[in-house]
Amino acid sequence: MFNWLVIGVGDITRKRVLPAVLAQPRSRLYALLTRSPAKAAAYPGALVYTDLSEALRDPAIDAVYVASPVALHAEHTIASLRAGKDVLCEKPVALNFAQAESMAEAARHSGRLLGVAYYRRLYPKLIRAKELIAEGAIGQPVLVEANYHGWLESPDRAWLKDPAIAGGGPLYDVGSHRIDACNYLFGRPQRATGLLSNALHELAVEDSATALVEYAGGIHAVIDVRWNSRIQRDQFRIIGSEGEISLDPLNGPTLRLLASDGRLTEEQLPPHANVHYPAVENFVAAVLDGAPLACPIDEAIWTDWVTEQVKYAQ
């Protein structure tokens, strides 16, 4: 059995990460690390730690899921790797690109696996979109448009509004997922810039972010994310010289392929009911079976590079 230490018992951890670990047949929720042990009461079978160093001395722990706030990702991940544990870290990788690179270096030096939970890489329809692009179904890709619009996050995730903890607002939160999806489709970004603003809300972080990214072959991506729209949008479209692929809404099941002759075809490819489950399953398979890691650290850090380019462009 694969023994997990999960760091952090926050909103997403309770709703998705812990249920994924508990449901994965080869996984066991062995221990939790939390500053508030009362939060662990719902998981009576798990050991409870409040000190990471003490937890990492436990030889029974095989892997660590780092679900602490972004500001602690580098510290917790590097300590876990140095203790000989494999690590699956929440997104975004870190507060900045230098921290992200230090995590990648720690993984290389330790010889342990370090993955990042950009779970949309395991959406069946995003995988299918990559296959269609490779098959030439839309000709030469030229543009990706990704929008995620909504209102401010719930009080349960108030820490997202503190740049010292979260790094930024929607750019780091929901924007990072969409930037990584573009990186998954088209590889390492070559150039990036963008705009941040506070159109409606006076916060310490932005309420609006627009990133412009260039990939090899002249492919452009425009990612717009915001916390100032009462209308929810979750749009993702890949435009090519001979057609386009629409994944609207990105979190839904439908993939639409529009060909240059006007033919429209649809496929229904729903994500897992718990979107974190495939990421946990993939990580376990990578460690135990040598399966390819869906989002290895050396790919994940380039989302941090893009967000940093956008911040520096201000």
Number of helices: 9
How would you spell out the order of helices and strands?
Answer: EHEEHEHEHEHEHHEEEEEEEHH
Largest sheet: spatial strand order: 8-9-10-7-11-12-13-14
Integer count of domains: 2
Radius of gyration from CA coordinates: 19 Å
- The chain-level structural class is alpha/beta
CATH class of the largest domain: Alpha Beta
Question: What number is the mean pLDDT?
Answer: 96
Overall geometry comes to globular
Assign a percent range to the helix content.
25-40%
Largest sheet: 8 strands, mixed
How far the N terminus sits from the C terminus, by CA atoms, comes to 49 Å
Number of strands: 14
- Low-confidence regions: none
CATH-derived topology of the largest domain: Dihydrodipicolinate Reductase, domain 2
Tell me the β content: 25-35%
Could you name the CATH homologous superfamily of the largest domain? Dihydrodipicolinate Reductase, domain 2
Please give the CATH architecture of the largest domain.
2-Layer Sandwich
